[in-house]
Amino acid sequence: MPRPTPLTLAPDVPGAAAPHRRRRRESATAWAFVSPSVLVILGLSIVPVLWSLMLSFQASDLLTPSRWVGLDNYQQLSDDPQFAQAVRNTLLYTALYVPLSIVLGLALALVLNRRMAFTGLYRTLIFVPFVVSATAQGVLFSFILDPEFGAANSLLHRIGVGPQGFFSDPGQALPALVAVSVWSGTGFCVVIYLAALQDVPKELTEAATLDGAAGRQILRHVTLPTLAPVSVFLVLWQTINALQVFDLVYVTTKGGPLGSTTVIVYFIWEQAFKNFTAGYGAAAAYVLAVGLLLATAGLRLARRRGAAGQIKGAGA
User: Fold this and answer.
1) 283-298: per-residue pLDDT in tens?
2) Who wins on pLDDT, 211 or 171?
3) CB burial string 247-256: b at 16+ within 10 A, e below
């Protein structure tokens, strides 16, 4: 009967553990370089988020010791007519700004995508308002739309139209803010659509042209379906920006007149730093955060269903 082979250990090879030690040293060095950024991110984002969440369940003025109130802040928000007005103003602003900026951006992108003289100049002029800060926009249009000395009323007077209140009129203040935002935000949509139009397959447009399709038919059945993912991204991006509008309101109207331009973020700022009810403002901030999450989830779900429908249609 043969004898069993004895179990032996592999002989020690000099330097075999060196690669492992080298990797550990490289990992330690990498973490040493990355750790300051990680600490900054934790200190400036995650910690404030958790702290504000705890603050939303307290009554605090940021000066004296806070008091735990549980869900009272959220209950008070549901009964606050000023918060309800801020929500309505924000939703109306979003409903006006998002489609106007996207539709106008798409129209300008389709025009600028053609060969014409000074195309680069036109693209630059359209994009410049986007890079101007909201504070500068507010100051500029506060002068232009001044009801007494503004250039807008001067121009309207020359064409026979009576003076308008603009930011001082409760019925015109919010549409005026939307107009200023569209003026500045359309440039971003134009740039994104111009980049996306470069990816529209020329073979499809040429084939549609050979089949006798007119320009509108090519736009409807070729160009717009190709741009659908970009349009979903722009809807999501513009919606998030609209729900968080603050700078323009703060510089121009400060929520007035008569609360007609008080949006959610301005309401949060007013409660936390003007009325010194920080816990109440934090609760309003988390209501806004939940709204943003729901809007994002809804758009992503709609995009997935649209993609699934296209795949099913192609398979059929």
Assistant:
1) 999 999 888 888 888 8
2) 171
3) bbbbbbbebe
Alpha helices in 162-277 (DSSP H): 173-197, 202-210, 215-218, 224-226, 228-243, 247-252, 264-273
Tokens of 310: 């296209």
Sign of CA dihedral 178, 179, 182, 187: negative
Report yes or no: 261 and 249 within 8 Å, Cβ to Cβ. Answer: yes
Is there a contact between 302 and 229 (Cβ–Cβ < 8 Å)? Answer: no
What pTM does this model have?
0.82
Block residue for tokens 């195309």: 119
**Three-state SS at 292:** helix
**Burial label, 114 (beta-carbon count in 10 A; 0-12, 13-18, 19+):** exposed
The predicted pLDDT at position 139 comes to 92
Burial class (CB in 10 A: 0-12, 13-18, 19+), 261: buried
> What is the rounded distance in angstroms from the CA atom of residue 247 to the CA atom of residue 180?
12
Cβ 193 vs Cβ 105: under 8 Å: yes
